[in-house]
Amino acid sequence: MRRLFGSVRARATLGATLVVAVALVAAGAAVLLSLYSNLTEQAGTEAERSARAVAADLAGGKRAGRLSLDDDDRPVQVVAEDGTLVAASEDLEHISGTGTDAVRPRPQTPPTREPGAGSGDDDGDDSGPSDDSDDSDDVAGATLQPGEIAEEASLTDGSATIDGEQADYRFAEVRVEVPGQGTYTVYAGGPLAAEQNAVSTAQTVMLIGFPLLLGVVAGVTWLVTGRALRPVEGIRSEMAEITASEDLSRRVPEPGTHDEVARLARTTNETLAALESSVERQRRFVADASHELRSPIASLRTQLEVAAAHPELLDLDGAVEDTVRLQRLAADLLLLARLDAGERPTGARVDLAELAREQASGRQGVSVEADSLEVAGSRGQLGRVLANLLDNAQRHARAAVTVAVRPDGDRAVVQVEDDGDGVSPADRERIFERFVRLDDARSRDEGGAGLGLAIARDVAARHGGSLTVHDAPAGGARFELRLPLA
Prior knowledge:
Elements: H1 2-5, H2 8-59, E1 76-79, E2 85-88, E3 92-96, E4 154-162, E5 165-178, E6 182-191, H3 193-245, H4 260-309, H5 316-340, E7 348-351, H6 352-360, E8 366-370, E9 374-377, H7 379-396, E10 401-408, E11 411-418, H8 444-447, H9 452-462, E12 466-471, E13 477-484
Helix pairs in contact: 2-3, 4-5, 5-9, 6-7, 7-9
């Protein structure tokens, strides 16, 4: 069960089903309440219409005993002021929810009143109601004039049994002033059977339809989600096989859609390509480093073994030279490892003019023309860049090397030029690769390990700058280092 609901497909299906279920329950409740309210209001209207029809007959002078109350199956009661039932539906057997539960009328001797006297005028004064009742609000207890029917009707719920059939009704209570007889109250019921049947039918439809609809929603969501996630499963399966085989040349399948899954597949393949390139680069780096380290170590070992057997043959200068070369190579490899690990330079301010003069000091044939410009970064790493550029320039220059530091907008530009043979356009990017040396015929002592320019470009990139090579006016190479000003 945990594995089932741990899938995106199952959670999406469950979530969609729950949302639809809540919406259906809320909508169903609103429909039932609205239906109940409308039908109950309709039953009340019918009950009030029946009550006013009987009240109109009474107001017209018809005696209560002569009222026709058997035209339909609606219960009707006519109650006098003293609570005596004076008229009722003929087949009425039981009633509740009205002013009295009596179902059999009792004879009543009508009171003797002066013509035009209302029920509220105990002293026979026909001057009309007092000032406090001028508005004739027609609410319960308000004074009515002879022949007048109250405008307001009270509505209550109750039940009645007519001819052996019990049912629920909406009762309307209407007061009427009968000339010469006093105030009568008419109760008439509107059947609630239609409302109950309609609500019951609606509930039945909802109880049957809602589960079916939820089943359809769940099924459609399950199918659609499964179809949408099928490419994801293909990506996952291929990634698992790539991990098991360690074959980074493989790629995950890319669906032909333009949705998030397709973008995920493309991004995954781009990541695999970058990872493959990085691993291949790392392998070449390890192989080249091993090869470069092997030469000075083997040379140093040979010299030491010869010295151990024949001390008089010890080439001390050669041993020191191999040791220095080995030390420099180890330092280069260590710096490259730190750069590859993402080491960020410090934010110290570095004066490039001062740094250029410092690195050029003591070098033959190197001149410096520099403006004082400050950049943010690591003084040691930037000094290493200038030293590598100067070493490369001196190695290929015929006589002179020039260093210039100048501003260019928001950038500081450092140019290192030599008067050598220059770099062909085809090799201007290749020379920045690690362990690349264009002059394969030259000796390792003269050419180095081929890491200087690679280190210089990596450091420039870490400082937010760039390092490129162009033709120099003197015919040699111009290396241009651009860094953002502090």
